[in-house]
Design goal:
Elements: E1 4-7, H1 17-35, H2 57-61, H3 83-98, H4 103-118, H5 122-140, H6 148-160, H7 164-182, H8 190-202, H9 206-223, H10 229-244, H11 248-266, H12 274-286, H13 292-306, H14 313-330, H15 338-347, H16 353-361, E2 366-368, E3 384-394, E4 400-409, H17 415-424, E5 426-427, E6 430-432, E7 435-437, E8 439-450, H18 452-462
Antiparallel strand pairs: 1-8, 2-5, 3-4, 3-8, 6-7
Helix pairs in contact: 1-3, 3-4, 4-5, 5-6, 6-7, 7-8, 8-9, 9-10, 10-11, 10-12, 11-12, 12-13, 12-14, 13-14, 14-15, 15-16
């Protein structure tokens, strides 16, 4: 199991929960008002003053009535309406007006399910998504495309509830409907394949998850010409998926195929080569493999970008950043940060340059990730969870310093492993106003799932 690393950011904002509830309610009530009779009168708006029913001219002119001359108008502020309650009311209203087996009622059930899902009431959400699917099929047939939406949301609901077995079943059913409605090779089903792959990974069914990714790529290749941008993006997506699973050679194979396709279809010096070249170089670095092919690919990508008549500052900055990352990861002597500084300067002419400067050159960004020992860790999604939180500094060469344990749960189980991981990893140096600086007091929390016997042994040692 790969542990989850969270970089802690300090931020805070206030949220008016009653306002969110009222806003959420608006979507239900506005839908209901669109379906009710035009002569029906809506409720008073929050803060509205109720006028005199007898038509007192003073009420219209704004004149102030003396005490005792007229009843004092009261400010009526509506209480926030619970979205689930509002959704239930819309369902009842639509059943009464349009019938139980109607499109309007199915839509109301879907909205009610969404409200339950936002409230983390996953069982009730599932019931209402299934009710919507049943109505759509009763009205429009078993393979109606209208069922795809609620079936997909049903799968997402199961996934959020950590019930990935049922999530896969819901996504599979949605894909079956999609294939019957739009054809066996329609590309709309790729989104469902990605969702299935995600849930299969959570079920530790890696080969089945990869099969969905391969099928998604085949669908793109079948629907588009070789070497087209759509096919290339499909290849990059699959390559990235492989890299995230640490299948680095297979990842580079995909990038190499894409590179060959670009050269065959678009020419030897086409700028489309940049993305697979960067992918190849970064794959070697993420594998912690300092092979010369890696840095050569990064340098070739930069050379291609610099020879373009219209230079892309963000693309050039990204290539410079990646070359800097290579130097930090594998450089024998301390790295001066020249590519990072050039990247910073290039971003000065980009519309989103300031945002990218913050993302790239502040915080703890790994450039060489030292694996954490998997001893005592579990792949079971229901296993006991825990974490280790540490703080540290980053020097101008990307090394960690002053590594300090802040807290952990269970205490002591993976403390030393995480401390060793931070000390041996390498990080991108921080920049301020284009200058490399020491990063102080950065925090990282690494999350784990533990084997029961590891937790039991730890508790036994503590006792």
């Amino acid at each position: 199991m790969s542990p989850t690393t969270t970089v802690t950011q300090r931020s805070g904002c206030g949220r008016c929960k009653w306002l969110l509830a009222w806003l959420a309610c608006v979507s239900f009530t506005s839908a209901a008002l669109g379906q009710t009779d035009a002569g029906t009168t809506g409720a008073a708006q929050p803060g509205a003053v109720q006028g005199d029913a007898r038509g007192d001219p003073g009420a219209e002119s704004g004149a102030v009535a003396e005490p005792g001359e007229a009843e004092t108008a009261e400010l009526v502020v509506e209480e926030p309406v619970d979205p689930v309650t509002a959704g239930e009311q819309v369902v009842k209203r639509n059943i009464a007006e349009f019938g139980e087996k109607s499109y309007q009622t199915a839509e109301a059930y879907t909205s009610l399910a969404d409200a339950h899902r936002r409230a983390k009431e996953h069982e009730k959400a599932a019931e209402n998504y299934l009710a919507a699917v049943e109505i759509y099929r009763a009205v429009n047939g078993p393979y109606t495309p209208l069922a795809i939406g609620p079936l997909t949301s049903l799968g997402d609901n199961y996934h959020e509830a950590d019930d990935d077995m049922n999530a896969v079943a819901a996504y599979t059913e949605a894909r079956t409907v999609s294939r019957r409605a739009y054809g066996l090779h329609n590309v709309e089903q790729i989104e469902l394949l990605d969702r299935m792959s995600r849930s299969l990974l959570d079920l530790n069914q890696l080969s089945e998850a990869e099969a969905q990714q391969i099928e998604a790529l085949r669908l793109v290749q079948r629907s588009n010409p070789p070497g087209s941008d759509a096919v290339l993006e499909g290849m990059y997506k699959y390559a990235e998926w492989l890299g995230n699973r640490a299948y680095f050679q297979l990842e580079r194979d995909q990038y190499t195929r894409a590179l060959r396709a670009v050269r065959q279809v678009h020419g030897e010096r086409d700028v489309r080569q940049v993305q697979p070249l960067l992918g190849i170089g970064n794959s070697y670095r993420e594998e912690r493999n300092p092979a010369s092919m890696g840095i050569s690919a990064l340098q070739e990508a930069l050379a291609l970008l610099l020879e373009q008549p219209q230079r892309d500052p963000v693309a050039i900055a990204r290539a410079l950043r990646d070359i800097g990352d290579w130097s930090v990861a594998f450089g024998k002597a301390g790295y001066a940060g020249s590519e990072y500084q050039r990247a910073w300067q290039m971003l000065g002419s980009a519309p989103n340059g300031e945002q990218l400067r913050r993302e790239w050159f502040s915080g703890a960004n790994y450039v060489l990730y030292e694996p954490i020992s998997p001893r005592g860790l579990s792949m079971d999604p229901d296993a006991v969870g825990g974490h280790v939180t540490v703080t540290f500094d980053i020097d101008i060469a990307g090394n960690s310093d002053n590594v300090t344990l802040i807290e952990s749960s269970p205490v002591g189980l993976k403390d030393e492993a995480v401390l060793r991981h931070i000390r041996r990893s390498r990080f991108r140096p921080l920049l301020e106003n284009g200058a490399v600086v020491i990063g102080k007091g950065l925090a990282i929390q690494v999350k784990f799932r533990y084997l029961p016997e590891a937790v039991a042994a730890d508790r036994g040692d503590a006792g």
